[in-house]
Fold this sequence. Notes:
Layout (H helix, E strand, L loop, with lengths): L6 E7 L3 H13 L3 E5 L10 E2 L8 E2 L6 H5 L1 H5 L9 E2 L3 E6 L5 E4 L3 H7 L4 H13 L1 H8 L9 H11 L3 H8 L3 H11 L11 H14 L4 E2 L4 H13 L3 E4 L11 E7 L3 H6 L7 H8 L6 E9 L13 E6 L3 H12 L9 E4 L14 E9 L8 H11 L7 E7 L1 H7 L15 H5 L16 E3 L13 H8 L2
Parallel strand pairs: 1-2, 1-10, 2-9, 6-12, 10-16
Antiparallel strand pairs: 3-4, 5-8, 6-7, 11-14, 11-15, 12-13, 13-14
The site of flavin-adenine dinucleotide has 42 residues, from helix 1, strand 2 and strand 11.
Amino acid sequence: MSFARDHYDAVVVGAGPxxxxxxITLKRKFRSVLLVEAKETVGGGARSAExxxxxxxxxxxxxxxxxxxxxxxxRQLELHRYGLEWIQPEIPLAHPFGDGEAxxxxxxxxxxxxxxxxxxxxxxxxLQPFVENHERLLSDVLKPLPIPEHPFLxxxxxxxxxxxxxxxxxAKFQSSRTRALFAGLAAHAMIPxxxxxxxxxxxxxxxxxxxxxxxxxxxxxxxxxxxxSHCFRDKGGEIQTGITVGSxxxxxxxxxYFFDVTPRQLLNIGGLDLTESYRSRLSRFRYGPGxxxxxxxxxxxxxxxxxxxxxxxxxxxxxxxxxxxASIRDxxxxxxxxxxxxxxxxxxxxxxTRAPQGGHTAWAYCHAPHGSGxxxxxxxxxxxxxxxxxxxxxxLAKSSLSPAAMERYNPNYVGGDIxxxxxxxxxxxxxxxxxxxxxxxxxxxxxxxxxxxxxxxGVHGLCGYYAARGL
Length: 471
Ligand SMILES: Cc1cc2nc3c(=O)[nH]c(=O)nc-3n(C[C@H](O)[C@H](O)[C@H](O)COP(=O)(O)OP(=O)(O)OC[C@H]3O[C@@H](n4cnc5c(N)ncnc54)[C@H](O)[C@@H]3O)c2cc1C
């Protein structure tokens, strides 16, 4: 392996959104920063590729970016100067039902409340204070330690957010359809909806939809990763790809090392000299269920029964609150769910660069047992057929990844867990171990900066930013 120097001020391992964010932050402080990535391209969970047919561009992992567009760190970087373009679908989210009707989260809070009928007032009362102050709320929520800059707003949020999604939905909403809409949002937590603080995910995703939208990246999520890498190189940073780091000896000498990997991987990297007690604490880190992910090249747009779904970037397919709840519970307990809750995006409807003329792309995943090698693409397609009869007839080609295959694609997705570890209330703030500065390992100059650290999963770069800033 040849590096430009024998010694660097800082070396970052892993060029996911958090590794890239750490590298950029470090470059502001230091002269020489090296970023090393196992794959030939940068991006981690923000890569795009022709997974099916030539000219059809698919997001391999992340596709929808409310967290990236609102990330206080990414906003500082002015990534449009490095080629990043956001596209806002007309409607962030649709949630169809079997009878051809659908509920939607519109960009406007008031328009959303209008279509919720008897629940409109309660929806408005729940969300308005947070939507109106979304920047302040997000800057506090997406932080390592809950020492808020806006304590009254956070206290108000905490009162609702600490509820289970089930209790909150039952207490606030009369209609089973509004409850189902909320379940689909809260289900992104990937933990059973009767657990404490699952309401937080539902509230936060709704606030993001109204506050900043749920945009996609023009040309694919790779555009975000490429903009970050251009930004880093522009500041004088060095990137080496195609190097899988198995031991400290694979890297040049440096004053500081940052690892965009999860605890299990860090434990397997040789020569780091971590203490036994720290290794034992890391080994107790808990991972969550996996996902089964499918991408399709289609000959036409998805023929939704509910017309409004054609205007939505993201569609949640799961039916009622109870069905979604059962699907999450099954995946969490390691059971296959025959009627899965599916998160679907249809980027080519809003971004013609994703497919050749007339063609379309679709992206979907469902939760699945941790580590399962079973490909449940057929069950996902069955779910889509329920709301869009004729979907299967449009498939030109597809690509699918079971949870086990997801981990082979990117070792950070241990057992197919896309959040870098379970995000229950305790582990959300004690990731990877309970500490005032959880990014620091037992070795003074070695840090962990992946989504296994606060504020957790998603493409926002804030784990990398806070790790590097707090150095
Ligand atoms: C199917 C799926 C859908 C998702 N959808 C969304 C979404 O729509 N919106 C959203 O915000 N988030 C989404 N996510 C989550 C998001 O992708 C992750 O939370 C995010 O990418 C985590 O960033 P990271 O930098 O911590 O790790 P990663 O993005 O996983 O990057 C880690 C990098 O480190 C490299 N690496 C690992 N080990 C080594 C080693 N030993 N040597 C060298 N390099 C190494 C890997 O190759 C990888 O490039 C999704 C994830 C998946 C899998």
